[in-house]
Automatic annotation (TrEMBL):
Name this protein carries in UniProt: GYD domain-containing protein
Pfam families: GYD
Species of provenance: Nocardioides koreensis
InterPro entries: GYD/TTHA1554 (IPR014845)
Superkingdom per UniProt: Bacteria
Amino acid sequence: MAQYLLEVAYTPESWAKQIRDQGNVLDRIQPLLEASGGRIESMFYAFGDYDLVGIADFASPEGAAAFSLAATAGGAVKTFKTTPLLTIEQGLDAMARASEAAKGYRPPVDTPAGHRA
């Protein structure tokens, strides 16, 4: 399963209803998660640009997209950001692959960034 960072900003109307009803967000999104092939690893309320942040596991990128689309279409959120995450090992593998791939790459600039002529 792949992990994703979820960042959610609620609409003022959604906040008003949540304050009134005080329902558990995890209970509310569980059916949508299950239908999308996902599960929450951790979820937190936040104060700043996003109201809710969490880490979720999804069986496929399509499942993560389905969850994001369905949650956004419900009208309770003004922003829903989904960011795929890599483990440290996956990041190191990606860097090794980039290093190898870059050997044959000729960028369309006179001097690549970070290099002196």
